[in-house]
C-alpha cells in the first residue's frame, strides 16, 4: 500500500511477491475468480491495464461528468483513456475499401466484415459500459452439434451449469421473474426466484404487448406464439423476500472506499450504456472491492501483460511479463514479471488471445484466437401510432424470446428481440439527428419545433434482432508485428465475416419485424445504406449488421487438446497451471448476452483452482459468501 | 451575474430571441442556469458584434403577442438571413442539446468568426439542462431520472 493510494500496491512489491494466483484483468471474470479464491485464503494479485482509479464516488462522478461533456457519447465516452492501454471505439469502424485493413483505431480491422464492437480497459472491464442483460443460455445452445448438426457441443450441459447460474445471479444481483422465462426448454430449480423482482415493464412494452402477444409465427415446420416478456437484468430492483428459501436478498450498492448513499434501485436514468450515474447497475468493481476486503488480494493497475513465459520442458507457465506505466498518456514504463503458482488470463476474448499470440502460444490445436464470435445485430425501427414515452426507464425492460430455439436451427441461426425504451439512438443517432433534421431541413423553430419533436421522438420504437453467430475458424484475432501500440505491444487484428447461417436469420428477422410493425400499426422506418460499415447482402437484399460487444470463442472449450484450447474448467490443455477465463472459452453464444454465462463458468474455474491449491476449502455457500469476504 | 459581466447588455435581447427560437418561456430558459454561458459561447465562437447585430435585427420591430407575426418576423429577418440564420439555428441546437456545433466553413469565411470554433459542450450542466428532454417528456440520459418504475406509467408530454 502506498501513502497516496490506499487501494493499490507499487509494482516493485508486486513483482517481488510470490502469489498463489495471478489474474490478468479486473473485469467480471477476474473479479469473480479473485473474490472466490481470496475468500478461501489464497493470495491473489489482479492486474489491470487501465488507470484503475475508479474506487471512490469522486472518481465515479468524474466519469459521469466526462460523459456529460463528451460530444460523441459512444460506449467508452465516460472512461479515462490511457494511450498505454488503448481501447476500441465504435466510431473507428469504417467501411473497408479495396481489401485494405482499417487501422485508425486500436483494433486493426482486416475484414471482410467491419465490426463496430468495443470493450473497455478500465477497472471493472467492460461491465462498466455493459447494459446488464442477464439471460441464461438455453439447453439447446450447449448441444448445437448433436441437436442441429451445427457448430460445436459444449463439454458440459445446461444442467451442469444451472447451479452456477444461480451463484452468478446472486453475485451480479439479477432482477427478474422466473415465470417470464418459461420458453425454449429453460428450466429452473423448483421454487427458484431471482434475487430481485423484475424491472417493471415500460409503458412501451405494455403498449406493444397489447397487440403483439399471441402473434403466431411459423419457422420451418414449427409454429411459435410470440409474447412480450420481461428481461432479467443485473440492476438493483426490489429484493425478493422469497429468495434463498425465504432469507431474502441484500443488494450491493455503490462502490466506494468511503461510505456512500448511492447505488440502490434503478431510478430510470436511461443510460445503462455507457454509465449508470447512480450505480444501480452491476459492474465488476463491486466484486473486486469485496475481494479486496478479504485482505488477500493485491491490485496492480496501469499494468499491461506483455508475455506469458513458459517452461519449454513442462509447458507450465513460469511468469507473466508485464509493463507498468506511471503516466497514462506519456511513453515510459518499467518491466517486471509476475510470479505465482497458477495464472488466470481474464482480459476478455480479444485480449486473452492477443496476449497468448504475442507470446507465440498458438496452442497444440492451433485454435488460439480462432472461432471468434459476437452477436450480429440487425436493428429495425419505427414510429408507434401514439406517443409511448420514448426515452424513459432502463434501456430495455422486455424482449421477445419465444423463437430462441427450434428445429429451424439446423438451417439458420437463432434470434431474440429487445424492445428499446431509448428510441432510435443506436440506429440513427436519435434524438440528436431528429432535432438537426427538424431545424435544418424542416425549418422548424419555437413551438412548432417542440410539438414536432413529440411526434418524431416520443413515438419511437427500436426493436433489435440479436442473432446467433457460430464458431468458424476463419473468424479470428491475430497479431502482426506491423501493428503495435505505444508500448510496443501488438494490437489485435480482427478478421471476421458473417456466415450464411446467420445471414439467413438476418433476412428472416427483417421479414418478421415487418409483420410486427404491420400488426402494431407502426410506421416502419428501417433502412440500410451500402456505404455504412456492416453492410451485408443476402438473396439480393441489403442490411446493416452491427456488433454486440460480445466477443467470444477465441480460446474455445472442448474435450481434447487437439480440437480445443481449454477444458470444461477453462484450464489450458497445454499449460496445466494456466486458465483462460471468460467468453473466449464459450463454444457457442446462442442468443444470450455472454456475461451471465461467463460469470457462471468463472465461478466453476475458481472452484477448480481452489481444489488444486487449497484442498479442503469448500466453496463458500451462497448464504455465507457475503459475510465471508468481510471477515 | 454582476453588471460587469461581459455581454451583460446583450442579455435581454438574447433571452427574447432564445424564447422565440426555442418555444420555451423566458422563465424556463433562466431556470436552466445556462443563459450567460450560452451567450458567452456564441460570442466566443462567432463574434460579439455578429450577435449584437442579430439581436438588433430581432428586436427592431415590436411584435407583442401575435404568434403568427413573430413566426413571420423570425423567418424573414433572422432564419433566412445569410449571417443570422446559421447562428440562430446553432442557438436552437445549443439550447436543446447543450452542444455548440462548429459554424459552417462558408459562414466563417464570409463573416470572420473564431478560427478555433469547434463542436463542444460548454459545461457538463449544459448537457443535463438540454430542452430536448423536457420537450419529449423524457430525462436527459444519465441525469434527472423520474424514479424507480415510473417508466411503466403513460408519459406526461405537454404540447406547447
TrEMBL record, chain A:
User: InterPro entries from the xrefs?
Assistant: FAD/NAD-bd_sf (IPR036188), GMC_OxRdtase_N (IPR000172), GMC_OxRtase_C (IPR007867), P2Ox-like (IPR051473)
GO molecular-function term, one example from the UniProt record: flavin adenine dinucleotide binding
Record's signal peptide: none
- List, separated by semicolons, the cofactors it needs: FAD
Asked whether the UniProt record includes S-adenosyl-L-methionine among its keywords, one would answer no
Domain Glucose-methanol-choline oxidoreductase C-terminal, first and last residues per copy: 471-601
Please give the Gene3D superfamilies that the UniProt record associates with this protein.
Answer: FAD/NAD(P)-binding domain
Q: Which residues form the Glucose-methanol-choline oxidoreductase N-terminal domain?
A: 264-376
Keyword annotations for this protein, in alphabetical order, are: FAD, Flavoprotein, Oxidoreductase
Protein family: Belongs to the GMC oxidoreductase family.
Q: What is this protein called?
A: Choline dehydrogenase-like flavoprotein
Q: Which organism is it from?
A: Salipiger aestuarii
Its organism's taxonomic lineage begins at: Bacteria, Pseudomonadati, Pseudomonadota, Alphaproteobacteria, Rhodobacterales
UniProtKB/TrEMBL annotation, chain B:
Q: What is this protein called?
A: Uncharacterized protein
Taxonomy of origin reads:
Bacteria, Pseudomonadati, Pseudomonadota, Alphaproteobacteria, Rhodobacterales
Superkingdom, according to UniProt? Bacteria
Amino acid at each position: 500500500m502506498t501513502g497516496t493510494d490506499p487501494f493499490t500496491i507499487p509494482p516493485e512489491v508486486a513483482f517481488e511477491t510470490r502469489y498463489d494466483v495471478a489474474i490478468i484483468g479486473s473485469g467480471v471474470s477476474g473479479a469473480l475468480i479473485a473474490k472466490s479464491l481470496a475468500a478461501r485464503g489464497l493470495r491473489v494479485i489482479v492486474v489491470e491495464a487501465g488507470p484503475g482509479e475508479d474506487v471512490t464516488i469522486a472518481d465515479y462522478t468524474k466519469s459521469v461528468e466526462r460523459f456529460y461533456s463528451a460530444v460523441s457519447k459512444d460506449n467508452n465516452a465516460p472512461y479515462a483513456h490511457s494511450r498505454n492501454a488503448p481501447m476500441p471505439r465504435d466510431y473507428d469502424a469504417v467501411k473497408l475499401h479495396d481489401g485494405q485493413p482499417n487501422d485508425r483505431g486500436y483494433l486493426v480491422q482486416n475484414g471482410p466484415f467491419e465490426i463496430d464492437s468495443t470493450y473497455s480497459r478500465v477497472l471493472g472491464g467492460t461491465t462498466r459500459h455493459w447494459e446488464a442483460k442477464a439471460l441464461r443460455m438455453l439447453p439447446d445452445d450447449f448441444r448445437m452439434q448433436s441437436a442441429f448438426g451445427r457448430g460445436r457441443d459444449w463439454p458440459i450441459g445446461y444442467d451442469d451449469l444451472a447451479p452456477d447460474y444461480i451463484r452468478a445471479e446472486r453475485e451480479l444481483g439479477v432482477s427478474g421473474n422466473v415465470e417470464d422465462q418459461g420458453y425454449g426448454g429453460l428450466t429452473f430449480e423448483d421454487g427458484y426466484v431471482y434475487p430481485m423482482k423484475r424491472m417493471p415493464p415500460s409503458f412501451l412494452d405494455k403498449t406493444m404487448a397489447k397487440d403483439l402477444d399471441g402473434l403466431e409465427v411459423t419457422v420451418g415446420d414449427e409454429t411459435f406464439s410470440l409474447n412480450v416478456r420481461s428481461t432479467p437484468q443485473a440492476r438493483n430492483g426490489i429484493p425478493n423476500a422469497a429468495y434463498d428459501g425465504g432469507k431474502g436478498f441484500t443488494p450491493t450498492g455503490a462502490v466506494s472506499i468511503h461510505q456512500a448513499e448511492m447505488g440502490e434501485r434503478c431510478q430510470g436514468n436511461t443510460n445503462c450504456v455507457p454509465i449508470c450515474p447512480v450505480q444501480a447497475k452491476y459492474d465488476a468493481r463491486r466484486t473486486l472491492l469485496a475481494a479486496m476486503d478479504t485482505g488477500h488480494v493485491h491490485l496492480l493497475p496501469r499494468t499491461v501483460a506483455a508475455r506469458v513465459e513458459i517452461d519449454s520442458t513442462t509447458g507450465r507457465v513460469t511468469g507473466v511479463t508485464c509493463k507498468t506505466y506511471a503516466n497514462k498518456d506519456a511513453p515510459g514504463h518499467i518491466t517486471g514479471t509476475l510470479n505465482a503458482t497458477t495464472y488466470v488470463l481474464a482480459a476478455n476474448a480479444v485480449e486473452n488471445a492477443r496476449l497468448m499470440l504475442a507470446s507465440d502460444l498458438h496452442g497444440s490445436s492451433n485454435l488460439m484466437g480462432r472461432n471468434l464470435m459476437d452477436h450480429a445485430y440487425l436493428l429495425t425501427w419505427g414510429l408507434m401510432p401514439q406517443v409511448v414515452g420514448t426515452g424513459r426507464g432502463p434501456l430495455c425492460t422486455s424482449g421477445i424470446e419465444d423463437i430462441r430455439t427450434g428445429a429451424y436451427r439446423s438451417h439458420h441461426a437463432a434470434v431474440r428481440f429487445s424492445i428499446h425504451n431509448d428510441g432510435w439512438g443506436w440506429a440513427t443517432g436519435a434524438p440528436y439527428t431528429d432535432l438537426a433534421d427538424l431545424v435544418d431541413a424542416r425549418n422548424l423553430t419555437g413551438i412548432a419545433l417542440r410539438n414536432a419533436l413529440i411526434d418524431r421522438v416520443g413515438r419511437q420504437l427500436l426493436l433489435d434482432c440479436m442473432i446467433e453467430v457460430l464458431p468458424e475458424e476463419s473468424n479470428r484475432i491475430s497479431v502482426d508485428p506491423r501493428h503495435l501500440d505505444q508500448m510496443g505491444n501488438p494490437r489485435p487484428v480482427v478478421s471476421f465475416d458473417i456466415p450464411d447461417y446467420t445471414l439467413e436469420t438476418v433476412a428472416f428477422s427483417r421479414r418478421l419485424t415487418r409483420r410486427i410493425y404491420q400488426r402494431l400499426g407502426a410506421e416502419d422506418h428501417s433502412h440500410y445504406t451500402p456505404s455504412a460499415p456492416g453492410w451485408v447482402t443476402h438473396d439480393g437484399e441489403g442490411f446493416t449488421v452491427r456488433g454486440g460487444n460480445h466477443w467470444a470463442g477465441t480460446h474455445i472449450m472442448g474435450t481434447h487438446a487437439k480440437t480445443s484450447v481449454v477444458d470444461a474448467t477453462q484450464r489450458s490443455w497445454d499449460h496445466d497451471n494456466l486458465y483462460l477465463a471468460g467468453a473466449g472459452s464459450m463454444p457457442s453464444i446462442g442468443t444470450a448476452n455472454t456475461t451471465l454465462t461467463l460469470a457462471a463458468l468463472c465461478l466453476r474455474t475458481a472452484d477448480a483452482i481452489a481444489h488444486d491449491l487449497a484442498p479442503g476449502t469448500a466453496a463458500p455457500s451462497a448464504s455465507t459468501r457475503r459475510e465471508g469476504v468481510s471477515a | 451575474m454582476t453588471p460587469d459581466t461581459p455581454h451583460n447588455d446583450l442579455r435581454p435581447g438574447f433571452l427574447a430571441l432564445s424564447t422565440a427560437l426555442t418555444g420555451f418561456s423566458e422563465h424556463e430558459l433562466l431556470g436552466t442556469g445556462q443563459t450567460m454561458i450560452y451567450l458567452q459561447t456564441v460570442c466566443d465562437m462567432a463574434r460579439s458584434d455578429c450577435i449584437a447585430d442579430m439581436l438588433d435585427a430581432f428586436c427592431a420591430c415590436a411584435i407583442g403577442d401575435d404568434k403568427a407575426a413573430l413566426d413571420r418576423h423570425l423567418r424573414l429577418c433572422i432564419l433566412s438571413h445569410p449571417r443570422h440564420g446559421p447562428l440562430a439555428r446553432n442557438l436552437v441546437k445549443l439550447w436543446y442539446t447543450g452542444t455548440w456545433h462548429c459554424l459552417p466553413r462558408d459562414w466563417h469565411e464570409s463573416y470572420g468568426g473564431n478560427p478555433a470554433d469547434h463542436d463542444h459542450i460548454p459545461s457538463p450542466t449544459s448537457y443535463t439542462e438540454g430542452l430536448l428532454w423536457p420537450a419529449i417528456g423524457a430525462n436527459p440520459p444519465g441525469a434527472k431520472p423520474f424514479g424507480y418504475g415510473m417508466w411503466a406509467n403513460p408519459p406526461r408530454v405537454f404540447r406547447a
